[in-house]
């Protein structure tokens, strides 16, 4: 359905968008878009047109259109830009529920030899052509979910009295340690950094406006290649005056749950396109289980964790055996099968091989995961596998809180009951997606912060302004950061965060 505004204002466009077709059942309208796919020949074509708002099948019959239109349909290839006029009709079998019987076709822009075809392509091939890959159906779905998450973020905070405030991208100080800073020259021998987090400026704005959130790009010179790390990512960072750690955790769980429920409600089509099994997402409801770091360490080392991992290994062996049997049986059937069945078998074989590869990789890794969990030492930071294993014990995201201070940033408040601990908290997503939120209660004591800045080897001058916040009406306050791409890749069930941003930046990728 078209958005509300476009249905009440006089239209600007002299064409209809595909998502507005339900408002035009039975009408003759013009669509403008690009050819996504084409079937048929001789005297009938089925053109799948995409225009960014959706996909629709347009049926062109040679007898119904003039020669120029037929030639346009005949010549059109993948990504040719077209204007298509025809009659809209509801059709339950059609993807999107509507179809068009075409009266006229006009070419707007040619496309010849489009490199991304419906066959399988490797990830590097696709990423090198990211500027084109964005047009594919899966990327359409992922980036529309991203857009919905962005809207849900603003709705959530705007409805709760938060002010959106913007933190600078160029900063003079580190926030999250010095090892992942992007540094650049900033006139007269001064260094500037691309911000790692808007938090410190967010704290200043919270003291001015009470409840604020920033939503901006953040940068980390992450040297590691993992499925969870980008060098440029977008973070949403609320900061609240007079909030303690518990209040902060409650806000974080409501926020995450709001985003997930909102996407489930508004992006059904996108999630279907991605073949996302949403069972686990449906359960993302508050309250989330909260466990302390100490409890998490105990759980990792427990027999229950060892058993869970062993069960996974057994389950994967079983699934692998079933898939191998299916593959063999399909191969036997293939010999005598009709052409279209052969195609189905081949398509299934690709799926089976992919899944078996994943299973083999998991089976290679799981013994190390078990070792890491069972020998986990108090005081270390959780690795990706530890986070994953922890979440296997629960049916929804979990919050881990009160971490050893020495693995956390300089600004965290110490636990008044145990000075070794910082009042930090992380939200871990299920299904192996790991940390999506990091935050905590901020230290307010001036002397303590001065000590910490020194102990972390940070230059005190750069933090003079920050320390002012502790001199003039310091109050308990808390906040957190949610990584947009981590959340989008989790909701979309994508393996890697790089698909959750239009143009990803990673250690090996600055183009396109
Ligand atoms: O845990 P982090 O480092 O926390 C902060 O930056 C705090 N200053 C936030 C705050 O309290 N205002 O990062 C927060 C979140 C992580 O949970 C993760 O979702 C995301 O940012 N994130 C990354 N996402 C993609 N690529 C990376 N390299 C990321 N590093 C962190």
TrEMBL record:
Ranges of residues in domain Aminoacyl-transfer RNA synthetases class-II family profile: 143-502
One GO-annotated biological process of the protein: asparaginyl-tRNA aminoacylation
Q: Does Ligase appear among the keywords?
A: yes
Gene Ontology CC entries for this record: cytoplasm
SUPFAM superfamilies, per database record? Class II aaRS and biotin synthetases, Nucleic acid-binding proteins
Q: Which GO terms describe its molecular function?
A: asparagine-tRNA ligase activity; ATP binding; nucleic acid binding
InterPro entries, per the entry:
Aa-tRNA-synt_II, aa-tRNA-synth_II, aa-tRNA-synth_II/BPL/LPL, Asn-tRNA-ligase, Asp/Asn-tRNA-synth_IIb, NA-bd_OB-fold, NA-bd_OB_tRNA
Keyword Ligase included in the entry's annotation: yes
The subcellular location is: Cytoplasm
Give the enzyme's EC designation. 6.1.1.22
Which reaction equation describes what this protein catalyses?
tRNA(Asn) + L-asparagine + ATP = L-asparaginyl-tRNA(Asn) + AMP + diphosphate + H(+)
Keywords from UniProt, A to Z, are: Aminoacyl-tRNA synthetase, ATP-binding, Cytoplasm, Ligase, Nucleotide-binding, Protein biosynthesis
Task: Extract the ranges annotated as region (Disordered).
Answer: 320-340
Query: What's the subunit arrangement here?
Result: Homodimer.
Would you identify the family this protein belongs to, as annotated? Belongs to the class-II aminoacyl-tRNA synthetase family.
Q: What is this protein called?
A: Asparagine--tRNA ligase
- The protein's organism comes out as Longimonas halophila
User: Which gene is the coding source of this polypeptide chain?
Assistant: asnS
């Amino acid at each position: 359905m078209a958005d509300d505004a476009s249905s009440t204002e006089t239209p600007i466009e002299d064409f209809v968008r595909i998502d507005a077709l339900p408002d035009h059942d039975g009408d003759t309208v013009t669509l403008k878009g690009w050819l996504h796919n084409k079937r048929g020949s001789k005297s009938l074509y089925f053109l799948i047109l995409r225009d960014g708002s959706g996909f629709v099948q347009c049926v062109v019959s040679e007898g119904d259109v003039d020669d120029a239109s037929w030639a346009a349909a005949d010549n059109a290839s993948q990504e040719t830009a077209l204007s298509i006029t025809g009659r809209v009709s509801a059709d339950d079998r059609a993807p999107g529920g509507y179809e068009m019987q075409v009266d006229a076709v006009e070419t707007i822009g040619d496309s010849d030899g489009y490199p991304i075809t419906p066959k399988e392509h490797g990830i590097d091939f696709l990423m090198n052509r990211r500027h084109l890959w964005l047009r594919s159906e899966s990327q359409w779905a992922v980036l529309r979910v991203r857009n919905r998450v962005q809207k849900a973020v603003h709705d959530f905070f705007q409805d709760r009295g938060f002010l959106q405030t913007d933190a600078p991208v160029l900063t003079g100080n580190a926030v999250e340690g010095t090892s992942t800073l992007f540094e650049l020259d900033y006139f007269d021998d001064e260094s500037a950094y691309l911000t790692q987090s808007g938090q410190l400026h967010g704290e200043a704005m919270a003291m001015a406006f009470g409840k604020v959130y920033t939503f901006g790009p953040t940068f980390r010179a992450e040297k590691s290649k993992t499925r969870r790390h980008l060098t440029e990512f977008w973070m949403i960072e609320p900061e609240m005056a007079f909030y303690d750690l518990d209040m902060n955790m409650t806000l974080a769980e409501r926020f995450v749950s709001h985003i997930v429920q909102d996407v489930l409600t508004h992006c059904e089509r996108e999630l279907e396109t991605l073949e996302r099994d949403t069972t686990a997402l449906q359960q993302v409801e508050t309250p989330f289980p909260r466990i302390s770091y100490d409890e998490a360490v105990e759980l990792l080392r427990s027999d229950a964790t060892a058993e869970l991992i062993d069960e996974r290994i057994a389950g994967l062996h079983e699934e692998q055996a079933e898939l191998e049997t299916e593959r063999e049986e399909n191969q036997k059937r293939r010999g005598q099968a009709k052409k279209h069945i052969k195609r189905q078998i081949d398509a299934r074989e690709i799926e089976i091989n992919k899944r078996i590869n994943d299973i083999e990789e998991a089976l290679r890794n799981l013994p190390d995961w078990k070792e890491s969990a069972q020998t986990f030492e108090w005081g270390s930071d959780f690795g990706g596998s530890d986070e994953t294993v922890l979440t296997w014990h629960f049916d929804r995201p979990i919050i881990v809180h009160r971490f050893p201070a020495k693995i956390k940033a300089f600004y965290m408040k110490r636990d008044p009951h145990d000075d070794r601990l910082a009042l930090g908290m992380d939200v871990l997503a299920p299904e192996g997606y790991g940390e999506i939120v990091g935050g905590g209660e901020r230290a307010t004591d001036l002397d303590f912060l001065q000590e910490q800045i020194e102990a972390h080897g940070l230059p005190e001058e750069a933090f003079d302004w920050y320390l002012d916040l502790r001199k003039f009406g310091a109050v308990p306050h808390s906040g957190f950061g949610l990584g947009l791409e981590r959340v989008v890749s989790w909701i979309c069930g994508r393996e890697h965060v790089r698909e959750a941003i239009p143009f990803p930046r990673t250690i090996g990728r600055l183009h396109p």
